[in-house]
Specification:
single chain; 219 residues; mainly alpha
């Protein structure tokens, strides 16, 4: 059993590495270029595969980790919702797939916030992380449903949503590398990539508002 877990962890790390490398590459290369689109597809495949493997591993004997389980789900949501955002270039209304993805993340984010709140009042270590990521998940999914409800969103809203979520998934990849790869597990290691990534997302949001790029397809 332990040998099986070890193999799964290696596969998880391999695809996570692909996600990390291609995610960084997609930021460096020209947006909308063929290489950018290829990097984006590889990034999505790498992150989703790595996260799917991490979910059962986080429940196996001697490897139980509820937080990593929830982060795995969070990463899958970011990649799926980030790619689904591209479909809003040609459609005005969300379908059941969009709502299921956002609704699922809303549910698990609520669990994270509940666990974090309970942990803080009971002095459980790292409970603030559950609140941090759970609150972030609630913020994103509430924005999703507001976006789905309003058919008169600004023309570039779908692209801003796509960029924000894909960068969010890259943040998760970088965080996992720092925690698991480098063995640094303090609060700063967990939160600094998110803080820096948020600044980058804000930069792109402002850039989107100053340029007419409605015909640009990122992935």
């Amino acid at each position: 059993m332990e040998e099986t877990i070890k193999i799964l962890i290696y596969i998880h790390a391999f695809f996570g590495g692909i996600g990390l490398i291609t995610g960084v590459a997609s930021i460096i290369v020209k947006k909308g270029s063929p290489i950018h689109k290829k990097m984006g597809k590889l990034f999505s495949i790498g992150m989703i595969t790595s996260s799917l493997i991490s979910i059962p591993v986080s429940w196996m004997a001697n490897h139980e980790n509820l937080f990593l389980f929830l982060i795995g789900l969070f990463t899958i949501y970011l990649v799926l919702a980030g790619n689904r955002a591209l479909t809003f270039k040609t459609k005005e209304k969300a379908d059941w797939i969009d709502k299921m993805i956002s609704g699922g993340m809303l549910f698990f984010s609520s669990i994270m916030v509940t666990i974090g709140t309970y942990g803080i009042f009971n002095g459980i270590s790292f409970s603030i992380l559950f609140l941090f990521f759970g609150g972030f998940g609630l913020f994103l999914t509430i924005k999703d449903f507001r976006f789905y409800k309003n058919s008169r969103n600004p023309k570039n809203t779908w692209l801003i949503s796509h960029i924000g979520k894909m960068i969010g998934a890259l943040i998760a990849s970088i965080t996992a590398f720092i925690i698991a790869g480098l063995g640094i597990g303090n609060i700063i290691a967990w939160t600094l990539p998110t803080v820096l990534g948020t600044f980058y997302i804000v930069y792109w949001k402002r850039k989107m508002k100053t340029k007419n790029i409605t015909n640009t397809v990122i992935y």
